[in-house]
């Protein structure tokens, strides 16, 4: 994102970085816990970062926001008010006594009034913290930046009845009974860490305990804490944790470094989960699951996110960040590690399809719009706004390119080198790339430009075939020659007409134009390039449709076969938008027929992806056509054509997969997906629609797994079927007391169709809707705004509704409000009055008197990107 300088909010620039003047290498914090009034007493060892020989000592600044200051002591003596100043941003001690001293500061906070869910806050009856990136300053005064590494000890004092469980990072030292029904629990973390990794939890929670023995034979105690009553929904999370621990040992030789690992499930949580040292905090939707109440997608998210947070223990915690601009150093790398883990544990092609689809549907638009930024942003106003798909997902693609260039073994060597060299330090992406180069004894200078260049590169591919010499060549051109030159890997396969692989080669493209050629061919080979999506670029390969159809049938790389098939569909779809008759485009039916006849050779899960038709959003983004109603109309035509043509096959597939066991194995997950895919087509076939409704409701009633149950609800909703209301009512009756399942219910009602505005207006007043719970807001308001047919209504009513919601959330939870504001990013591409109305809604947001830093930055950035 560009750095606007909105009103009075300060902009942080990467080139202004300088190391901290003062450090606080040790801290002891005592919390007197109370939901209304918590007293925090923090004792620091303060020291000067570098020798200031003879010169007078610089002032000490401690960040602090929204704190009620109580007292300050320096070296034991209480400071008089003239010795320090307190502002909205923090506390300044003008004349520190010497280059090393002790400081004790006391302040008061109110967890209950903290609805922004950053700092110390209350969720149900639990107190917990969220400090990344800059939440610690909402708990106590501190040098709140990731290059200030602290050894923490913590004393938690609280009422035994309300807070029998008191947790913090590291090792439990002791528990003491104290007068008045209270207890004191002491924790100590032997590893120095920045403030953002600090955490505490207090509550009356159920504990699920297990153990894990490392490859070297150490026993680690694993604990998951949940609200009482949810104990039987933690098995899969515990399993995921153990799998992740084993995988990191086997893959990278990384063994967990404390004797205790804790996960706490929290109902009110701004994001997915948080990697606090030894004490991960999780959005409860990413911990709690059983087959009755969680979908296959939720199970897989749990596997991935539990692993992600666990992997941060090395990539993030042991080696951390020098500054927030380098967020992708830990996030891109850790996402890549969790992707790799899930590829190993499930089906690599399927996982890759999901990850690339996410990138194309969400990151490509972000990078093409007003909020485009490099994976290392050059400036920010509110760091919370930079936890983006670009920093995370594109960042992971950049790391993946290294693993393709260096090979997995070379990558492992490089990562080990990085972790050894920089253990206990805060570093930047430069140290990471340097470690990779050093361990592999090569240099990748242009590769660094991936960290500074924003926007998705457009790569044009052209082929040349010389019949006389038998020479075949490929040329790759980066079309934006004014931008930074890049280096990227291109795995290539050349096929003959029978599908035999003639050549497999890893080509490394450097700069704006690169060429590779081969000779000795009798016939023109067919090339597959960027196999397995080897670089986060848009590829334009000017070649015959015939060649793409060939790859959709013959490519051995599972991802690239899927991608070619989708390409066939998209090209034909585009022609249909331009008025060409569907019946005149046999290629789509041909590749689907081929997939259907090949289906016994394909894993069920993978097959379901090959058979899926691109979503409205995916089509709009790929074809850069943003008239969603026209896309929907054509898409329905295509679906009906395919369904009618293959109705018997889809009936067969449905019958073959109708009965699945409610377990999380590839086969059973694949069966459930195939039930869903085949029903989806059958519902679009003109012939079978009416008969199917009754069958669907019966299936919803009999479902043994949430994936089966919910897919019916969604299907009836998407089809706007006459039984839709009955389906929703039945689902509600069954699940009204399960909050995580109700989130699916809210989302499914507004996620499809052109009439969701009325529904969202009604449901926001539903007794189960709650503006303070981020999961609920995302499921209702977020799903509405991600439904293009309703959000982008021609009269602007969708935009106005989102504007009202943002205003409401601005005062409750600015982070959630800002994330919703980002959904305006592509309104400018729309036709008619839409852009004007979107601009007006954003302008009105700027008039809100207490508009948060979070929302202000997003609104300003979007408006600026639109040239306003
Ligand atoms: N570091 C977390 C992760 O990706 C993400 C995170 C950042 C977060 N800020 C947060 C999580 C606020 C919850 C709340 O693993
Ligand atoms: Zn992360």
UniProtKB/TrEMBL annotation:
Q: Keyword Transcription, does the record have it?
A: no
Question: What Pfam families does UniProt report for this protein, alphabetically?
Answer: DUF3458, DUF3458_C, Peptidase_M1, Peptidase_M1_N
Query: Is the Protease keyword given for this protein?
Result: yes
Q: Which cofactor does it need?
A: Zn(2+)
Q: Which InterPro entries match?
A: Aminopeptidase_N-like_N, Aminopeptidase_N-like_N_sf, PepN_Ig-like_sf, Peptidase_M1, Peptidase_M1_dom, Peptidase_M1_pepN, Peptidase_M1_pepN_C, Peptidase_M1_pepN_C_sf
Peptidase M1 membrane alanine aminopeptidase domain location: 236-447
Catalytic activity entry: Release of an N-terminal amino acid, Xaa-|-Yaa- from a peptide, amide or arylamide. Xaa is preferably Ala, but may be most amino acids including Pro (slow action). When a terminal hydrophobic residue is followed by a prolyl residue, the two may be released as an intact Xaa-Pro dipeptide
Q: Which residues form the Peptidase M1 alanyl aminopeptidase Ig-like fold domain?
A: 455-541
Positions of the Peptidase M1 alanyl aminopeptidase C-terminal domain: 546-862
In terms of domain of life, where is this protein from?
Answer: Bacteria
| Keywords on record | Aminopeptidase, Hydrolase, Metal-binding, Metalloprotease, Protease, Zinc
| Enzyme Commission number, as recorded | 3.4.11.2
The entry sums up its family as follows: Belongs to the peptidase M1 family.
The name this protein carries in UniProt is Aminopeptidase N
